[in-house]
Structure formats: structure tokens, C-alpha cells
Amino acid sequence: MLPLEGVKVVDLTRVLSGPYCTMILADFGAEVIKVEMPGTGDDSRAYGPYVNGESAYYMSINRNKKSITVNTKDPNGVELVKELIKKADVVVENFKPGTMEKLGMGYEDLKKINSEIIYTCVSGFGHSGPFSKRPAYDAIVQAMGGIMSITGPGDGQYTRVGASVGDITAGLFAAVGTITALYHKNKTGKGQKVDVAMLDCQVAILENAIARYLVNGVIPQPKGNRHASITPFEDFLCKDNIKVMVAIGNNGLWKKFLTVAGREELVDDERFNTNPLRTQNYEELKPIMDEIFMTKTSDEWYEQLVAANVPVTYVNTVDKVISNEQVVAREMIVEANHPKVGPFKMADTPIKMSETKGGFRTPAPVLGENTDEILRDYLGYSEEQIAEVKAKNIL
């Protein structure tokens, strides 16, 4: 039995932040009913790449869910969704604040039909504050939330993080909030609203950048691939013109590295014998490190530093990531058998539990694949009632 088995979730989300949250819930057993617009479905169904007409983007973040199509622009469709929510434990949405209220499905509305409902909402700026009603995308919150200002090759050269961390961190925090609310409900019988803002999540993950500014008043700037507070902690070009990433986070690792490098005399160099000094004297240390790494090939550095237990890696491209022996051993790439696509590979859950194995069970649903099943098994509709609903053209 999976830990969230028996939990019923009505998923009104689309694209990334909300679907990522509900995928996590589904990975650990929640029954997630994804409500999609007839004909088009989740916006991400229109995002490539495509396999046999199905979006790989959509399939990668909607596994283990069921899909029902309901036109929520029609009052009859709204009433049908409310029927689903009456029987649910959780509803998740990621519309701009105010949208659900206009449909009569805001938290205050839904509490009246299901007093114990957990209402998780993910939005750009949250359901309070002066920016609440503004639209937002990942790039907007990365820029506004500060993470772009500390990412890039150097001062003033800002770069968006390649993965959609604005959306994904919001999805992660929303899943944590939802599960926490479920735990509270199990103890008290009370539901609640879980309000997650993408901007808040970006602020929450700035960690040492905020600490550094609040302590010394200096505005953090991009440092390329080096760490602002730990040295040496970056990538270096080797003799064969290939870079390796090295993370020397303490003095013990510094000594091990110098032994491998054959530069033991630097252990007692007063400029570099503590991490704060190495960071303070970075401009003096950097050319020395560059010279050291040019003495061996990337393979030699990798093998020798691994043997010495010094953190090191190549900078892997995605093709090398999915074939990495550690990634394979941890079963992070799984294969689904999609009804329209056939075999399809995707990343699985990174949460490994000893007793309740979560992750992939069923592929992402075809649009509306489970409509009849949900009406019949979840709402108890007869075949005649299903036909009546279909006649209203809301499915």
C-alpha cells in the first residue's frame, strides 16, 4: 500500500507548477483526477516534442493520473466538477488568483460543499499582496525572485537557470504543503487553504545569497561556475581541453587534493590554509589552480580524485546523465508503455522509500481517457446518466 493511497485529488492544474505537484501526490498513491478542457486539454499537450501526436512534455509530468474532460466555461461543467470535489480530499489549481472565484470554485465556495477540503493553489505571486493578480511565468519569477541575478558568467551578466526552477520549486513546495495539510486533517478533521507563490519559493531558495547580503550589505553577483563562499569550488580546464568540476568544501579535502596534485607545499601557504582565506585570495589562487589542472588530462584527474575521495565530475550533457551508472542504479529513468506512443522513457521520482515504493505506475493519460470510468466509478453514474451528461456537450 502506498502512503497516499485512498487520498482523492481533483487536479485543475495545467502546464508545469501545478501538474508537478499533483504528479508527486500521484507517485505515492493518491488518486489524481485531472480535469481538462474538451478538445485541447492541458496547455502543455500543445508543447513539443511530439511522439505519435502526443506531447512528451505532457507525458513527463502527468504520469499516474486519470483524465476527464469537462468544459468549465459552462455552468453545467462547473457543477460536474463540484460533484467531483464533494468526494475529494484535495483540490489543486494554478490559475491566476480570482479565476476560481469567478467560476464559483474558490476556497470559500468549496468549503461550503466540502468542509474538510484541502485547497492547494499555486500562482505567480500568491493570493495576497499588491502583485497578487499579475500574470507570471517561470522567467518572470526567476528574474524578480533574484535567482537570475546570481546566475551567469560574471558581474551584471545575468542568466536564466536552464531548468524551470520557478515552476518546479513551486510544485515541490505545493506538494509539501498539501501533504502537511493532509497530516493536519488526519489529526483534526479540518481542511485548509495552501497558498504557494512562485515568487515566495524563489526567495526561499536563495539561501546564502540573502545571508551574505544581510550580513555584509554587498549585493551578490554572478560568479560563473564558482561558489561565492567556498574555494576552490568550480570547473577547471584540463590538459586535453576538457573541463572537470571540483568541489573542495573543507581543509581535509584541500589537503587530499594537493596530495593528488603533487603540490603539498601549498598546505602551509598562509594565503590558502583556510577556506575563508582561499576565498579572500581567490585572484591569487585561481591561476595556480589553472596551472595545476593543465598538468593532467580530465580522465586522469577524474580517476585520481575519485580514488582520493575528493568530489569531482565531468560536466555531463543530458545524454550522459541518463546513461550514468549511478542514475541507472537508482532507477531514475523508467520506461512507460503509452497506449498511443508505445515505449516512452522519462525521469522517475527521486524519493526512494524502503517500505512504500513510489514513482511510475501508469503512463500519462490520453485526453479524456478516463471520463466514463470517473463518472461511473467515482460519481456512481449509470450508463443512462453518462449519456445525459454527454448530451449536454460539456465533456
Automatic annotation (TrEMBL):
This is CoA transferase. Keywords: Transferase. InterPro entries: CoA-transferase_III_domain, CoA-Trfase_fam_III, CoA-Trfase_III_dom3_sf, CoA-Trfase_III_dom_1_sf. PANTHER family: SUCCINATE--HYDROXYMETHYLGLUTARATE COA-TRANSFERASE. GO terms for molecular function: transferase activity. It comes from Massilicoli timonensis. Pfam families: CoA_transf_3 (PF02515). SUPFAM superfamilies: CoA-transferase family III (CaiB/BaiF).
